[in-house]
Structure formats: C-alpha cells, structure tokens
Amino acid sequence: MPAIPYLNPKGFNFPDPKAALRDPSGLLAYGGNLQPASLIAAYQKGIFPWYEENQPILWWSPNPRSIIYPNDIKISRSLKKAIRSCPWEIRINTQFRSVIRNCAELRRNNQDGTWINDNMMSSYVDLHLAGFAHSLEVWQENNLVGGLYGILVGNVFCGESMFSLKPNASKIALVQLAFLMKKLTKNGFIDCQIQNDHLMSMGSVNIPRKEFLSKLKTLKDEADFWPSHWQCIIP
Asked: Over the stretch 182-197, which tens digit does the pLDDT of each residue have?
C-alpha cells in the first residue's frame, strides 16, 4: 500500500482530499487527534475518521461519495404502513449519549468490533456539547427504540451511524431527517459517506468526490437548520 501522510497529534493540517488513495478507497492520512476543532475542520473539508480499536486514527475522503437528496428519499409501502400504524415520537438531542452507545453496541454485537470505540464516543459527545453533533431519536411509549447521529456542517448533515431496537426504527429516523431537511434547508443533503444496499434502498446515490466537495463548500457556511423539537411527519 502506498505511504500516506502522518498527522502530528499536537497540530496538523489535513492533506487535500484529492490525494486520497484509490485502494483502499479514500484513505487520506493517519494520526492526528480527535479534538472537536480537528473533527470540525475535517468534516468541513469532506474528511472523516474511521478506524478500529488499537489502530492509529485513520482519515478518509472516499470517491465516489454516497449522499441522499431529501426530495429523493424512498419510502416503501411497508414502511409507510409502519409509520402510520404506530405512535412514533421524534425527539432531537435529548439522549445523544444513548444514541451513540446503542449504535456502538449494535455493531459490536453484529460484527467483529466497531469503529465507534470509547475514544470516538467521547469525542463525539464533546462535539455534541459544543453544538455540532446531533441525534434524531425515535421513541415509542416513552422508550428510545431507534435513531441516528451525525455532524451538521451548514446545511449538510454528515450521518455517522444509526440503530434500531424495533423493526423499521432506523429507517423512520432517516425518513424524518430527510423531511426535516426538506422543510428547513435549501439545497441541503445527507452525507452517507459510503454506499451500501440499505442506503441505496432508501434513495442514496453516488456522486464524484469533486462534486461532493464543491457542494459542501457552497453549503458549509449557511446557517445551521437544526431545531430543538420535531413532530413526526406521516407520509
């Protein structure tokens, strides 16, 4: 594998995302730190950390990039029925720690480890307390049953992970995020980072990294749209 830049933990500048490797796709640099200022700078440049326990911090900017345009969110008939048939409640930023912890546990139980390690959780909680990381939560009978979290960069929501403790709960969270953005933003979109079958079924598309970075640059300085509450919309 070709050498990638090392980032000094005490102070560093991210390389140009165009310098990222093709294989593995998007690997840009290693090292650095997970301080809030570093994470904000990374997301504003279309870069995110993703690494396993006992690895150095790895920084990525994949090409192509998977995104969801809010107007193009796909809602299957069965999902519409699920939304309409149950008294879901959507809350915002009331249980950020619980959301990220559930995301980590879900992946730890389903896979051999997770990138949402203790250091990552602590850093993203700090980002949340600083007003940059947010959770959208799905509640049922006053119980947290699903949700997602991510980082807001202007009018772009950089999604990190989601979880479900009840069938369809994470899908409902994603649908509600799309509706929220469609209602409150202009030209905003959801950054899904890397494509997978689940995201494709919900309407994600791949765009070239160059196009993604151009859109991000245009939208990153727009006013944040995140409200303090949200009522579940029934499609």
From this structure: 988 888 999 999 999 9
The predicted pLDDT at position 12 comes to 85
Q: Which letter does DSSP use for residue 70 in this model? A: G
Give me the phi and psi of 163, to 5 degrees please: -150, 160
The secondary structure of 114-169 as a DSSP string is -S--HHHHHHHHHHHHTTSEEEEEEEETTEEEEEEEEEEETTEEEEEEEEESSTTH
> Residue 136 is encoded by which pair of tokens?
């959208």
- Pairwise CA distance, residues 125 & 133, whole Å: 8
**Residue 167 phi, psi (nearest 5):** -55, 135
Return the percent helix, strand and coil in the chain, to nearest 5.
35, 25, 40
User: Which DSSP state fits 9?
Assistant: T
Extract the tokens encoding 146: 């699903």
| List of domains in the chain | 6-64 (3.30.70.3550), 66-219 (3.40.630.70)
72, 51, 61: which is closest to 26 by C-alpha?
A: 61
Contact (CB, 8 A) for 115 and 139 = no
Q: What are the pLDDT digits (tens) for 117-131?
A: 999 999 999 999 999
Cα–Cα distance for residue pair 193/48, rounded to 1 Å: 9
Interatomic CA distance for residues 42 and 39, integer angstroms: 5
